[in-house]
Amino acid sequence: MKLLKTLLFIFNAFIVFHAHSSLLKQGPWRGQLILNDSTLISFSFSVNENDHLILRNADERITLKEFKLKGDSLLYPFPIYQTYLIFKTRNNNSIEGYFVNPDRKKHSKVKLVAKHLEKSKFTDSIKTSKKNINGNWHVTFSPNTKSSYPAIGKFEQQKNGRVTGTFLTETGDYRFLEGKLKNDSLVLSCFDGSHLFLFNAKIIDNELHGSFYSGSHWYTNWIAKRNPSFHLAHPDSLTTFVGDTFHFKHPDLENNIYQFPNEETIGKVTIVQIMGTWCPNCLDESNFYKQLYENYHDEGLEIIAIAYEYPKTFDKQVARVNHYLEYKKLPYPVLIGGHASKQEASADFNMLSKISSFPTSIFINRKGEVVKIHTGFSGPGTGEIYNDYVKKTELLIEKLLIE
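Now predict its structure.
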């Protein structure tokens, strides 16, 4: 009798759940994340026949497959990250709820509304702008302040006013950005489950003068001048090796101490990746390293990742990494570094001048010598810059393997 009641409960929950999720109409949707009373981030997604949500950022697609009922709301967790969408269906054409980042003590919720569309996000009629922002721009964020930092804006403008591109900084890129140029106003945005970016700008005297929102918790302004020859500091020059030997010891996921160098790595070419599972640039790098490992491991390449995570306890840090590995299936070991702090990582690796970014990768030859330290990662959203780095890294690994 007890078993029968349990089975009936599960069956009823299944029926209620699917009746609720069926309120999400298949096809394209337009969402808006409300940062404040006057600032919105638009994003597009679609719902398929399996009730999966597929988010779009330019060429990037992020599929939210898992969903469950929480009270009278639907909850869709993001893969990899700890963030999620939670919302109620107002009718089969609209939803209302929140994007939630539980790691944030403040500004952990951003209000979300969305409506079903007959058209996709950028098929709206946009008056073709007479302005042209194609190409590379020299960007300064937070100009005339102590927090000022440089970037390169890379934009590709289409005839219908659609614009894609990204910003490259010295520690990584600002992901797959998509938006539009209407008259003299530019809007670009990205929503990937970790980042919530909005860039607005006006074209004034052949310059871009804009604002940058990262979620509802951070804001600055920026200016840009067209300059195809502007270059950032090389990512291999930002962190230097200042010690006698490169070494570390950190616990693995079973809390066994892993010490480097060791018998398994002596005489091998090794990449040590300092990263975090919360970091999209680290995710891009991990995707590349997974392929790199599969291509060159049999020839003598080892990769070791060390994760710095937001939870304060070891067990919760391990849980984050295990969740990450469920999705990514990385073939190389991932160790626990500690709390997600550049200061803590710098203290752990005091034979380096500093850790200024997650990720940071240390390339070591067969003799155990540090041959390169690469700060940050410019992922697929940077186009040819990413492709060029992939080719150069493969050539470096091949060179080190035959030495």
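Confidence is low (pLDDT under 50) at residues 5-21.
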